[in-house]
Fold each of these.
Amino acid sequence: MKTVYLDYAATTPVDARVLKAMLPYFCEQYGNPSSLYSFGREARRAVGQARRQLASLLGAEPDEIFFTSGGSESDNWVIRSLSEEALRHGGGHIITTKVEHHAVLRACEALPSGIEVTYLDVDSEGRVQPEAVESSLRPDTFLVSVMAANNEVGTIEPIAEIGAICRAHGVFFHTDAVQAVGHIPVSVKEWQVDALSLSGHKLYGPKGIGALYLRRGHKLAPFIHGGEQERGLRAGTENTAGIVGLGEAAAIAAAELAEESARLQGL
Ligand SMILES: Cc1ncc(COP(=O)(O)O)c(C=O)c1O
């Protein structure tokens, strides 16, 4: 009996081309990207290339990409860092939705008192109403977080419309784009997002690697302390092979997105 795997929203297999790109970074080019000698330089070069590949897929600049362990970490990082900052100024208000992934919902629920969260309803198709976002804004709203594509029902949210509203009101806008990146065109500029979470294993990359796009000019408090990696914002020796795999997956997605997206729509 042949098994057919249909849950690509849960995870995807690693593309053979991605695996090929990653392999040298386990046993041959295993240098630490922070080391100053040639082994380190080669690893650092590979990390830099992956950063450019990923930035290119998102229409971002390489210095706006921060590698993380995945979508959950990226979501938690934004929510917790911005909340800590708000708490230093007396607290504040977050707007999100009832259909977010638990990485957003549980992170919001775990926030200390002083942070109030509005969880917006969605319509019968899972769509968030941009007008509801706008009418829920308060003077103390410091973050709006709305996912780009839903992991359970596949609804694509009106991110550009919500982004325009947030930008007009000067409110930080984060989108969990874990289910969107690599599947539909993503442009951080057209969407007017300040931060965007993504994950390697949803786009034929490896598990345990992801990224946070953070618009130039914003600074988040580090989520993991202890080293100068990721420009001091995310400590820990880089997952070089994973990063290379994510970069390759992004490059493949960029090259094949139009064709693949049309194929999936057809299915
Ligand atoms: C929408 C969404 N956000 C976040 C995540 C978590 O990503 P990761 O598994 O990389 O932590 C997932 C994974 O299922 C997801 O679908």
Amino acid sequence: MRTIREFEDRVHTEFAGEDIPGAVHLYAGQEAIAAGVCSVLSDDDYIASTHRGHGHAVAKGCDVTGMMLELYGKSGGLCGGKGGSMHIADFDRGMLGANGVAAGGVPLAAGAALSAKVRGTDQVAVAFLGDGGANQGAFAESLVLAVVWQLPVVFVVEDNGFAQATGTSFHLAGKQIALRGEAVGIPSRVVDGYDVFAVRQAAAEAVERARSGGGPTLLECKADRFYGHMEGWDQQAYRLESEIDELRSSHDCVKLFADRVLADESLTAEELSAVDAAVRARIDAAVEEARNAKEPDISELLTDVYASY
Ligand SMILES: Cc1ncc(C[n+]2csc(CCOP(=O)(O)OP(=O)(O)O)c2C)c(N)n1
Ligand SMILES: [Mg+2]
């Protein structure tokens, strides 16, 4: 969670300096969801991510320097510097890709789960999507196929209260998204997305169900984002500054984690500070390397564009 937060805070600053090209959506505030879910996955398991995908990639174990190089569009980035923020993928880590299409990763995860089932492995696939993405037809279709084929898949809806500037009070049909899973017989529940322990426990049950042949689960994790929808674009006229202040002061998953582990004495303040320092150094080094790296060579312009079979 600290690595994701530091990565995102730093990208926010660097983006303002106009060093980073393209569209960038920050995940800060929602870290407990990616960290809690991915903490119960192995490298062999799959995730399919969203346009707000940095947190999922970090939590699945993608190299942060490779990610930073990718955001800067530099050679040596995880996708050769040609994908940028919204197309980070790393198959070695089972990270099937960020996705510019809302809910675009959902059928990909269902497909990966089908592949695992057909091949007879015990791999699990997780589909991350937003509350807005939950209105896409591909989500409804994937829920049905996951039930019919009893796929080893977990649908993780990240309800951050908004789809761009549109609040869930405007775009949500029905009382909650989890009911859409229940409607087709998928065990579904709402989870506090600020509480990494709650997310981890819910994800562990869901992954165990999927791995042992019990089929799909839907988790609706609620946590608002700290920044606007997208860097350099969103004035956030749709929410009050006091709401953002309240979010950052009372619903910060990193602080809530620290409060809890200090209170139960499972970690000391010194240990937490050491993590902070190590993370800062790691992200500093990643930014430094990304700034100084070369852009992809012109000879690479057409490589990786089409797959050859
Ligand atoms: C199919 C499709 N329709 C519209 C868009 C434009 N768009 C980009 S992000 C977004 C909102 C997504 O909201 P949500 O799924 O809640 O994710 P969040 O941004 O809140 O993480 C929309 C409508 C898109 N990328 N893909
Ligand atoms: Mg949303």
Amino acid sequence: MLRSYFRRVPLLINRVDKHFVNTTAKKTPSLDNYLAALGKGLDFFGIHGPTADEITKDLDLSNKTCLITGANSGIGLEMTKVLSSRECTVLMACRNPYAANMVAKNVCGNSHRLKLYEVNLASLRSVKKCSDEILKQQAKIDILILNAAVFGLPWTLTEDSLETTFQVNYLSQYVLLMNIEKILAPDARVVIVSSESHRHVSWDFNNQLTPTEAMVSLPKSQYTSIRAYNISKLCAIHFMHYLSYRWLNSGKSVFCAHPGTFVKTRLCRNWWPYELLYTCMRPFSKSISQAASTPLYCATSPELNGLSDVYYKDCRRCEVSDLAQDLHLSFRICDLTKNLIRDRVSLTEEARVKELAAFPDQAKHTIDENTLVANYTG
Ligand SMILES: NC(=O)c1ccc[n+]([C@@H]2O[C@H](COP(=O)([O-])OP(=O)(O)OC[C@H]3O[C@@H](n4cnc5c(N)ncnc54)[C@H](OP(=O)(O)O)[C@@H]3O)[C@@H](O)[C@H]2O)c1
């Protein structure tokens, strides 16, 4: 076995060389390009699994509509490209739709299959506006991929007074889903792009019994960017459990998918040591196309019909951490989430009442707070 691997080494060198000459060398040569080429060469041994293209090769998705958050970059962009090439209509929910449009037109062959929506997940107001637009324009969504995320940010609060990583990676996408739930197809699939890093959260027993805002939306004194990221990914798995319970007697299903570790995307852009680490790990980690394969497998594979509430890694079913398995905790986290949202919506409404007092002409557009809360929390 070892001997057969060694026999492949000259082929590997050849492959790295060829890939570098054919592709990356056309751009400015850089460490990143060399490492990408080396990674491609190493994958000659097939260690990183299939690509998104390979996993969806036999599918015709011409009658499907898929909404993807963070569809303009990295794994989200790759999924957009592959799904649109299978004739799926892709609704790209992006922070900067103009930039996203330019990127998508360059990368995706079937750009007529794409539609852009603007959303800033660091703002509940923006999430509401985006979901209203989607509800107005779309009759049905078959696949929803909650993919957007941030990592490595310094501590910041959003305009809704929540820690940014928590709100962007989890809470706002919870709100988006609940807002558009009524147009999810009866057999819709929801995929939450998750991460193995959910395993690194430790909460003591008392905290698990009564989760608080400070445990999920970290105050500055307890903040590290890794901790905030891990917590957001743990909450997302609990959201999967909650949804699958909510949809128990329906045809809707929900999965979590870990795309891969140290996949070199723009996720690591916020802090140079992370950028360096991800660059150095490039030869040993999945390519973006390989990373997109597990979420797309969950979103489209007929093999998963009838299943729900499952976590996938490398296109295989996988156990989540003990903390992520606790269904009681799932309900407590969802209750906490609803309370956090309710508080924020009331605050928004309070600000609006003040605004109306100053500009009475707008009174005819007053929104009923109960409807608003129901929209946000489902
Ligand atoms: N890369 C990895 O090694 C890895 C490992 C495990 C899990 N994952 C997960 O894979 C998913 C995709 O990540 P990626 O690696 O492809 O990273 P990426 O290239 O940085 O993509 C993240 C996307 O999220 C969007 N986003 C960030 N903040 C936003 C906001 N406030 N409002 C709206 N959109 C926002 C980004 O939009 P902008 O372009 O506007 O910033 C971007 O489109 C994430 O859920 C991540 O946690 C990645």
